[in-house]
Amino acid sequence: MSETVLKIENLSKLYRLGEVGTGTISHDLNRWIAKVRGKEDPFAKVGQVNQRSKQATGDYVWALKDIGFELKKGEVLGIIGKNGAGKSTLLKLISQITAPTTGYIKAKGRVASLLEVGTGMHPEMTARENIYLNGAILGMTKKEIRSKFDEILDFAGCAMYVDTPIKRFSSGMTVRLAFAVAAFLDPEILIVDEVLAVGDADFQKKAIGKMKEVSEGTGRTVIFVSHNMGSVKDLCTSGILLNNGQIDFASNNIEEVIDYYLSSNVLLDRNINDMDRKGNGKIVFSRCELLDASGKKMKKYHTGDRMTFDFDLDQKSPNQLDAEIIIGIRRKDDSPVCFLSNNYTGVEVKISEGVNSVRCVINNIPFTEGDYIVNLMVKSQNQICDWVQDVTYFQMERASFIYENYVYPENYKGFYIEHEWTSK
Amino acid sequence: MENTNDNQWDLVVKPTTSWFNLKLSELIRYKDLLFMFVRRDVVTIYKQTVLGPLWILIQPIFTTVMYVFVFGNVANLPTEGIPKPLFYLSGVILWGYFSEAFSKTSSTFSENAAIFGKVYFPRLIMPLSKIFSALIKFGIQFALFVGLLVYYLVTEPETINPGVSMAFLPVLLFLMAGLGLGFGLIFSSLTTKYRDLKFLIQFGVQLLMYATPIIYPLSMMQEGSTTRFVLELNPISHIIEAFKYAFVGNGSLSAGGLVYSGIFTLVILLMGVVVFNRTERTFMDTV
After folding, report:
1. How far apart are CA B95 and CA B214, in angstroms?
2. A163 contacts in chain B (CB < 8 Å)
3. Is B155 in contact with B242 (CB distance < 8 Å)?
4. B54 is in which domain, residue-wise?
5. Predicted local distance difference test score (pLDDT) of residue A43
6. What band does B3 get if pLDDT is binned at 50, 70 and 90?
C-alpha cells in the first residue's frame, strides 16, 4: 500500500436529456460560437443534479459531478450505489469509453476494463480464434496470449472444444471462456463491472477467487462495481458510495460503506409510490405494511412470531384480472432467503377495478436474527405488472425459547427449524 | 508544475485534447489487434456458404460481363481499343476497392457501438482493419485481372501494352485506400450525430461511380469541355486512368492529375483522422 496508481480530480460528466434530434444543430452552433468567443459552454451551466425520479427542468444533467479519489497500488475498490447513481458512467470515463466534461483521470500502468465478458467474440469463430481475438481486444499482444493460452483453456475448462465454433457452445461455456481470457489479462489496473452476475454459482466462486488471488498476490489494483453486496464484501478492501452522481460516502473499510448504503437506502421508510419499479403497470402496489399478531404496524419480530403482509393493489381497467403476488425476502447482504406466492399455495387472487386489499400471513416466522429486505412482484397473464425492489424491511430478534448465550455460526444463519433432542 | 507531474503518469484523460494528437504509438502497440480484426473479417464472411471465397471472384466477373453487355454492346461506349472485358474488369476491381473501403469504414461508429461501448482500444484500428481486409479481397481480384491480362497478351498482343509504370501500383492503391479511409472516417464521424448521411452514402457511392471513368474512358470527353473538367476534379479519375495506363497501356496518364489526387488524398486523410479522433471521445453519448 504505497504508491498512488490512479488519481481522479474534479471529474464531471454532462449528459443531454431527451432526444438528440431537432435543435442539435442550433445547440452545436451556439456552443461553437461560445467557444470561439472564449466563453464556457452555455449548456453546461443549466445542468442539474442527477436525480432520476424528479421531473427534469432543464435539457442537461450532470451524470457525475466533482468526483475525486485516489487509489493505491493493490487496493481493491468497490463502487456501490442505486441504479442510475453514476456507477457505470464513472467506469466508462475511467476506461476511456467516453471523455469527461471536466476533470482529470491519471493512471500509472496499463488500464484494462471488463465491462462485459466476451466483447467482440464472434460466434462463427473457434474457441482458439476467439481467445486470440478477445485477448487482443482487451489489450494483450499475440505473444502474451500465446504464452498463457494453455492456462486460459484450462481455466475455462473447454480444452476439448478448442477448435469448435463458439456458436455451438452453451451460453455458460461461452462466458467461462470469455472470463478465462479476462482473468489472465495482466494490467496494473483492472476495472470490472457486474460481469460476475452470469455463469453458474460454482464458476462465480472460481471467478471471485481468481480475482482475489491476483489482487492479493500480484498487487493488482481493481475497481469493482456490483449490486451484489456479498461479492463486494468478499472482494473489496475500500469502497465508494455514489448517489445522484456525487460521492456520498467513502471509506477504507468496505463494510462501513455497505452498512451506510444499506441503512441510508433500504432500511429507511419510503413511500412505495415513489420507488423505482419495472413492469407493465396494469396492476401496481400502492401500500405495503407489516403487521404483528395484534394487527399493529411492526418492524421487529422474534423467531416464531406471527407476521402479516398487508398490501393494497390498484387496478385501472374494469376487467377482473387473475394475479400472482410474489414476496421475495432477502438478507441485508443480498443473499436470498425465501419466496412466497399465492400460486405456490394454490390460492387464486382476483384483482378488480380500484383498490384491492390483499394479505399474506406467516404463522411461525422461521427466520433467525438479522435484517431482512422485502421485494414485491405482481404478475398477471404471464407478464410482470409491477416489480418493486427493497420495498420495506424488518428485523428479527432471538426468540425467548432459544438459549440466549448461544453463538450461532455465521455461515449457517439459515432458518430456525423446530427440533427436539432426547438422550438416554 | 502540472506538466512535470504529468510525466509520471502513463495515462492522462482530460476533457479536451489537441487537434493533432494522432496517438500513433498507441496504434503500433495494438497492431496485433489490427491483424486479428482482418483475420476475423476474412475468416467469417463466407462461413456457411457453399462457394466460400469464390464469391470474391464471382462478383467482379458477373459485373464485368454485365458491363460488357450493357455499356459495351448496347450503349456502344468506346474502350480505347482495349479488349472490353479487360477494360471493364480493371475499372470494376479498382472501384470495388474504393467503394468497399469507403462504405465499410463509414459505418465504423454505428456498427461497432456495442463493442466501443464496452472496451477501449484505439478506435482507428477498426477502420484500418476494414481497409486491409478490402485490400486482401482486391488482391484476389487483381490476380484474376492479371490472369485475363496474360490471356490477352498471348491471344491479342497488339491491343494492349503494359508498361514499367506498373511498379506504381502500390502508390495507386495507397491513394485509393487513403481516399476511401479519409471519406469513410469523416462520414462515420458525422453519421453518429446526423444519421441522414447514412442514406446519402447508400446511393452516393453508386452515383459517384458514374462521375468516374469506370465504364467509359476519360479520353471520350473532349479536352477543355465542362464534363472533362468535372471528371478531372474527381481525384479518383486520375488513379483509375493511371492504373489503366500502367497495365494495358491506354488511358490518359497525367502527372499533374496524380499530384492533385495525392494532395487531395493527404488532406482528406488528415481531416478524416482529426475529425474521427474528436468524435471518438464522446460518440458513445450521441450514438
Report:
1. 8
2. none
3. no
4. 2-286
5. 59
6. very low
Which candidate in B12, B33, B123 is best for mutational testing of the A interface (most A CBs within 10 A)?
Answer: B33
Residue of B nearest to A105 (CA): B13
Is ipTM beyond 0.85? no
Would you state the pLDDT for residue B94?
A: 93
- The tally of domains found in chain A comes to 2
Q: Which chain A residues touch B if contact means CB-CB below 8 Å?
A: 7, 15-16, 20, 24, 92-111, 113, 115-116, 119-120, 122, 124-125, 129, 132-133, 136-142
Q: How far is CA A80 from CA A112, A194, B68, B285, in A?
A: 20, 11, 67, 23
Question: Residue A116 domain-assigned?
Answer: no
CB contact under 8 A, B284 and A98: yes
Q: Where are the beta strands (DSSP E) in A157-220?
A: 189-192
Same domain, A221 and A291: no
CATH number, residue A391:
2.70.50.60
**Alpha carbon of B182: minimum distance to chain A alpha carbons (Å):** 23
Overall number of domains in chain B: 1
Same domain, yes or no: A349 and A312: yes
**CA atoms within a 13 Å half-sphere pointing along the CA-CB vector of B157:** 1
> pLDDT exceeding 90 applies to what percent of chain B?
39
Assigned C-alpha cell, A163 = 477448435
User: Does the residue A249 lie in any domain?
Assistant: yes
Please tell me whether residues A70 and A204 are part of one structural domain: yes
| Of the partner residues A15, A16, A125, the one whose CB lies closest to the CB of residue B43 | A125
Per residue, the 3-state secondary structure of A277-341, as one string, reads EECCCCEEEEEEEEECCCCCECCEEECCCCEEEEEEEEECCCCCEEEEEEEEEEECCCCEEEEEE
The answer to whether A129 contacts B39, with C-beta atoms less than 8 Å apart, is: yes
Among B13, B30, B32, the residue with its CB nearest the CB of A100 is B13
- Domain membership flag for residue A347: yes
Range of the domain at A329: 272-404
Among partner residues B32, B120, B193, which is closest to A141 by beta-carbon distance? B32
Nearby residues of A122 by Cβ (< 8 Å), 6 or more positions away: A129, A130, A133, A166, B40, B44
Q: What is the pLDDT of residue A359?
A: 92
**Could you tell me if A284 and A374 lie in one domain?**
yes
Instruction: Please indicate, yes or no, whether residues A325 and A201 belong to a single structural domain of this protein.
Output: no
Residue A15 domain-assigned (yes or no): no
Please check whether residues A283 and A378 belong to one and the same domain: yes
Specify the CATH number for the domain of residue A71. Answer: 3.40.50.300
- A371 and A253 housed in the same domain: no
Same domain, A292 and A399: yes
Residue B247 CA: distances (Å) to CA of A50, B43, B162, B180: 64, 31, 4, 22
B263-282: average pLDDT: 90
Contacts of A349 (CB under 8 A, 6+ apart): A322, A323, A324, A325, A342, A358
Domain boundary among A225, A244, A265: A265
CB contact (8 A) between residue A119 and residue B286: no
Q: Considering only CB atoms, which chain A residues are within 8 Å of B39? A: 129, 133
